[in-house]
Design a protein that fits this description.
Rossmann fold; six-stranded parallel sheet; globular; 11 helices; alpha/beta
C-alpha cells in the first residue's frame, strides 16, 4: 500500500514512523501548505513533497491518505481525498462536530472509499482482555466505570499554534484533544452513554477559549454509572497514566495506559495470574503521552493502520470506521452542552 500524509506537524511523524514499520507499506507523498514543512518530513522518511493538494492527490499509485491537519480542518481534505478516490485514515477527533463527521461519512460512502479514525488504544492486547472480561460478565453487575486523564500541558503547548485551544480548530480542550482516546476506550468496553451531567473549568492556562479541566457524571445505556475526569492542568514530573477503572459486584480492573494496576475477580481463573504477570505494571509499558505528547509510541498507530490495510484486503469496514469514530465526539459534545447549561442533565444521542 502506498500512503500519503496530509499535514506535516508533530502527529505526522507518528504516521510516517508507523508506515515505515509496516511490511509492504510505503510513504509515497506528503502535502503541506508550506513546501519546507513537507520537505522536512520527506527528507526524514522518504516520499515526494507537495504544497498543492490536487497535485498530491494525483501522485501516481497513491492508495491511502492520512489526515494530520488541525482537528477542525479535517473535513475539507477528507472530502478532496475521497473525491479523488483515496481511502482515508483520519486523526482523532474525526471532526469537531457530529454534523461535520456525518458529512465526511456521507462523502466517503458516495465515493466508495474507506474512512477510518485513529483510536489506537483499541488495538492493545490489554484492551481486548478487559473488553472480553466485561462482555463475558466476569464483573457481574457493574457499579462504576470511569475514565481518568490527569495530564499536564505547559502554556507553551497552547502558544505553539494559533489553532490550539480554539473551538473552531481544536473543537474543545482537555476532553476533545487529550482525553478523547480514553473516552473512546471507555465506550468501546462499556457501550454507549445514555445521559450526562458535567462541569468544565479553565484553571492553569491563559488566552485559550476551551477547558483545561472537566468532570462528568455519566449513565450508561446498560445501567452502569460512571465518571469522566479530563485535565491538562495536573502537573506531574513524569506524567500520570490515563486510566480506565471498572468495578462490579464480582471484580475490579484498573488499567493504566496499556497495563493493569488492578486485575482481580472473586472467582479466579487460571489465566488471571498470567494476565497480571504479562500485562501488570511490572511489565513493559507503552507511554500514552501524559507529560510529553511527542513520547507516544508509534506502534499504537501502526496497529490501527494495519487494521485498515487488512480491512481493505478483506473487503470489510475498518474496526474504527466513521460510525465508531463518531461516538466519542457525540459524548464529548454532550458533556460540553451540559457544562454550558450549568450542569443540567443532557441526553446523549
Amino acid at each position: 500500500m502506498r500512503f500519503g500524509i496530509i499535514g506535516a506537524g508533530m502527529i505526522a511523524h507518528f504516521h510516517a514512523k508507523a508506515i515505515a514499520a509496516m511490511p509492504g507499506a510505503e510513504l509515497a507523498a506528503v502535502y503541506a501548505r508550506r513546501t519546507e514543512a513537507a520537505q522536512s518530513l520527506t527528507h526524514e522518511y522518504g516520499g515526494n513533497a507537495y504544497n498543492d493538494l490536487d497535485a498530491f492527490l494525483r501522485h501516481d499509485g497513491l492508495d491511502i491518505a492520512t489526515i494530520c491537519t488541525p482537528s477542525g480542518a479535517h473535513l475539507e481534505p477528507v472530502v478532496a481525498a475521497a473525491r479523488a478516490g483515496k481511502h482515508i485514515i483520519c486523526e482523532k477527533p474525526l471532526e469537531v462536530t457530529t454534523e461535520r463527521i456525518d458529512e465526511m461519512v456521507a462523502v466517503c460512502r458516495d465515493a466508495g472509499v474507506s474512512l477510518a479514525g485513529i483510536f489506537p488504544r483499541r488495538f492493545n492486547p490489554s484492551t481486548e482482555l478487559l473488553r472480553v472480561a466485561v462482555a463475558s460478565g466476569r464483573f457481574g453487575r457493574i457499579a462504576l466505570a470511569d475514565a481518568i486523564v490527569k495530564w499536564w500541558r505547559p502554556q507553551s503547548y497552547y502558544d505553539s499554534g494559533a489553532w490550539r485551544g480554539t473551538w473552531a480548530l481544536d473543537g474543545g480542550g482537555a476532553l476533545m484533544n487529550q482525553s478523547i482516546h480514553t473516552i473512546d476506550l471507555l465506550l468501546h468496553i462499556m457501550g454507549d452513554v445514555e445521559s450526562v451531567r458535567a462541569q468544565t473549568r479553565l484553571i492553569a492556562h491563559e488566552d485559550i477559549e476551551v477547558e483545561d479541566t472537566a468532570t462528568a457524571m455519566i449513565t450508561f445505556k446498560n445501567g452502569a454509572l460512571g465518571t469522566i475526569q479530563g485535565s491538562t492542568a495536573c502537573w506531574s514530573a513524569d506524567g500520570h497514566a490515563a486510566e480506565i477503572q471498572i468495578s462490579g459486584e464480582h471484580g475490579s480492573v484498573f488499567m493504566a495506559d496499556d497495563r493493569f494496576k488492578v486485575w482481580e475477580f472473586s472467582s479466579e481463573t487460571d489465566a488471571d495470574a498470567r494476565i497480571r504477570e504479562t500485562c501488570g505494571l511490572n511489565s513493559d509499558a507503552v507511554g500514552a503521552g501524559a507529560a510529553d505528547p511527542s513520547a507516544i509510541d508509534f506502534s499504537w498507530h501502526q496497529r490501527n493502520f494495519e487494521d485498515v490495510v487488512t480491512a481493505l484486503q478483506e473487503g470489510r469496514a475498518p474496526a474504527v470506521d466513521g460510525r465508531q469514530a463518531r461516538r466519542a465526539v457525540t459524548l464529548i459534545r454532550a458533556i460540553y452542552a451540559s457544562a454550558a447549561a450549568g450542569g443540567e442533565l443532557v441526553q446523549v444521542s
